Amino acid sequence: MSFPLSHASSPSHALAPYGWDDDWAATFAPYAGKGLVPGRVVRVDRGQCDVVTPAGTVRADTAFVVPRDPMRIVCTGDWVAVDPDGDPLFVRTLLPRRTAFVRSTSSQRSEGQVLATNIDHIVICVSLAVELDLGRLERFLALALSSTAGAALLGDGVGTEEREARPLVLLTKADLVPDPATLTHLVEDIERIAPGVPVLPVSSATGEGVDVFGAIVRGGTSVLLGVSGAGKSTLANTLLGEDVMDVRAARGVDGKGRHTTTTRNLLVLPGGGVLIDTPGLRGVGLWDAEAGVGQVFSEIEDLARGCRFHDCGHEAEPGCAVLGAIEDGSLPERRLDSYRKLLRENHRIAAKTDARLRSETLREWKRRGAEGRAAMELKRGRIR
User: Fold this and answer.
1) pLDDT tens across 293-331, in order?
2) What is the mean pLDDT of each run of 10 residues along the chain (384 residues)?
3) Domain check: are 61 and 199 in the same one?
4) 326 and 231 both lie in a single domain
């Protein structure tokens, strides 16, 4: 498939609904000079991706941008440069990312997995059909608040402006909590563990909060995150005004869904804005989230400044302001336990990552050394 060059020279109008702006145009300018066209990845599947371009949505191969680092694999939300004359079409370049939501692949590995990129809002969906899991929400928030760090390095070519993705907690299925006082209490519980983060009850069944949420996401790209059964796809369909995403009822016993969404899909909302729907997450391992942990547990870090010792571990040290807050009841012990757990996990992942990088660097040095010795032996053989 070929693209008319007129589209490549003035892509802003065609791609504006997908988030194209003057900054992206400036970043893409060097590639436009090479005859490439811009596009945004709306879906990725087994080495290929669907890319919306000025000429329409195309299927492109990612073979030219398959890196060793899994953090640089093409992801839903990425802006890319596509070769318009290829057959098949190929993604040639991955543009630098402004933001990225990243989790660790598993507790046994030291690699990160990018779930969505170039996002302005990270929407954490929490179902009110089941008991609130505050620890899981704190984990999501720590990752969300760390989403900007290093994101602009995860791409090729000219850098772009690094921005901040703002988290939002959606309490879905609010119609299942008919008592307003109870709902207000639940919102306050979340606000206490999410300082500065908006908390919004919504119901796709009654429409409660949907207009407010639609107004928030109208200004950029938003990603819906949460466990299976949290109502993400139902909410996406409500905003879209049609049943685009497949939905199944959650189990009545525990409120869990059945992973009807299997890929991350980028959708343009009729009222403005872009939405990335994601499959339900069984696990959310931390990845480079120390800054986010500090923000989520800011009250603990503020208390720690009053400890007698600057390296206080808040275990049994004399003059520990954190333990003092536990004793007088101003700090719940659950919060301190969660803080310790997330910090330990993040440090463990960081240590594994450092060890993996050192090992990969050593292997690269050995490979280059072997190639150098082989070249020298070949040269010596020719001299003789």
Assistant:
1) 989 999 999 999 999 998 898 988 899 999 999 999 999
2) 40 81 93 94 91 94 79 91 88 92 66 87 94 91 74 46 81 94 94 91 94 92 90 91 60 47 83 90 72 91 93 90 95 94 84 57 61 64 53
3) no
4) no
Q: Are the CB atoms for 12 and 53 separated by under 8 Å?
A: no
Q: Rounded to whole angstroms, what are the CA distances from 171 to 119, 136, 163, 200, 340? A: 20, 14, 26, 6, 26
Number of domains in the chain: 3
Strand residues in the chain grouped as ranges (E): 37-45, 48-53, 56-61, 79-82, 91-94, 100-104, 112-117, 121-127, 166-172, 199-201, 221-225, 265-268, 274-277
- CA–CA separation, 33 vs 8, rounded Å? 10
Residues with Cβ within 8 Å of 28's Cβ and at least 6 positions away in sequence, in order, are 38, 79, 81, 95
Give the CA distances from residue 183 to residues 130, 171, 201, 226, 314, in Å, rounded to whole numbers and listed in that order.
13, 9, 8, 20, 34
Instruction: Give tens-digit pLDDT for 352-379.
Output: 655 555 555 556 566 666 666 666 666 5
Last residue of one domain, picked from the residues 63, 94, 125: 94
Question: Hunting for tokens 């003035």 — which residue is that?
Answer: 10
What the block records as the tokens of 284 is: 């959310």
| pTM of the predicted protein model | 0.79
Q: Both tokens of residue 322? A: 């954190």
Residues 341 and 356 in one domain: yes
* Burial degree of 109 (CB within 10 A; 0-12, 13-18, 19+): middle
Domain harbouring 133, CATH code = 3.40.50.300
Q: What is the DSSP string of 98-149?
A: S-EEEEES-TT---EEEEEES-SEEEEEEETTS---HHHHHHHHHHHTTSST
Residues facing 41 on adjacent strands:
51
Q: Which residues contact 126 (CB under 8 A, 6 or more apart)?
A: 132, 137, 169, 170, 171, 172, 190, 226, 230
Question: Encoding tokens for residue 289?
Answer: 């989230």
